[in-house]
Design brief:
about 260 residues; six-stranded mixed sheet; 9 helices; binds zinc ion; binds fe (iii) ion
Length: about 260
């Protein structure tokens, strides 16, 4: 059961950042301060003092507010050790398997290269919460910019092993477009067809579709379902490897 408080807020055209707060210790973390003004406004709105920053990867829409927010709050920044792009302002560099403590809770670092080679995700096992950055989206996944499709498939496979009730926060509201694509490669999936309706309604009402849960993603996210017999037969790839099926689905989405 989650004991920390989570406050997700939008910025830019489709990004989300999250504040994580402990009422017990007064500590607050921010995942991906992509817009400094938006972070400071969210902190003011909640009345929380930022103590630390967690970065998933070097892309500007995730780090652009880092130095502004550090300066305004005196917080400390953690992020990936792998330097596929500069992240000025990091105080601590993390790699796969590292863990640290936040407000008495364990935070595990999972390296999920593919979108970028530096991508790390943050998993709080006692809370049952994961921050998947631009690796795993709702019914989608990040574009493979720096890695290979196989690398991205391995990264998604790592996340898929998290407990099924894990609550997943990701960095972009791409859900409706992802769902409309997902039905084109997984047309017989009733849960997916149902979820497409739900998310389109949510977006018409301007509601966020994030967070999601791993169990819903395993049921409806084609990028986690490369091993699914009906998707493989629909694509005519019964004898391909899971990574090859994943690569085909990713290619179709890129060209959609
Ligand atoms: Zn990115
Ligand atoms: Fe992004």
């Amino acid at each position: 059961m989650a004991e920390l408080e989570y406050f997700q807020f939008p910025y830019g055209s489709d990004n989300y950042s999250v504040l994580i707060h402990s009422a017990d210790t007064g500590e607050t973390a921010c995942v991906d301060p992509g817009d400094g003004d938006a972070v400071l406004k969210a902190l003011g709105n909640r009345g929380w003092n930022l103590t630390e920053i967690w970065i998933t990867h070097h892309h500007g829409d995730h780090v652009a507010g880092l130095e502004q927010v550090k300066q305004a709050t005196g917080s400390r920044a953690r992020g990936p050790v792998e330097k596929s792009g500069a992240i000025p302002g990091l105080d601590e560099h993390l790699s796969d398997g590292d863990s640290f403590s936040f407000a008495g809770k364990t935070v595990n670092v999972i390296h999920t290269p593919g979108h970028t080679t530096d991508m790390i995700n943050y998993y709080l096992p006692e809370e049952g919460i994961a921050f998947t950055g631009d690796t795993l989206f709702v019914m989608g996944c990040g574009r493979v910019f720096e890695g290979t499709p196989e690398m991205m498939w391995n990264s998604l496979s790592k996340l898929a092993k998290l407990p099924k009730d894990t609550v997943i926060y990701c960095a972009h509201e791409y859900t409706a477009a992802n769902a409309r694509f997902a039905v084109t490669v997984d047309p017989d999936n009733a849960a997916l067809a149902e979820r497409l309706k739900t998310v389109e309604l949510a977006r018409r009402n301007n509601l966020p579709t994030i967070p999601t849960t791993m169990i819903d993603e395993l049921a409806t996210n084609p990028f986690l379902r490369a091993g699914d017999p009906s998707i493989r037969s629909y694509l005519g790839m019964e004898n391909a490897s899971d990574a090859e099926v994943f690569a085909e689905i990713r290619k179709r989405k890129d060209n959609a």
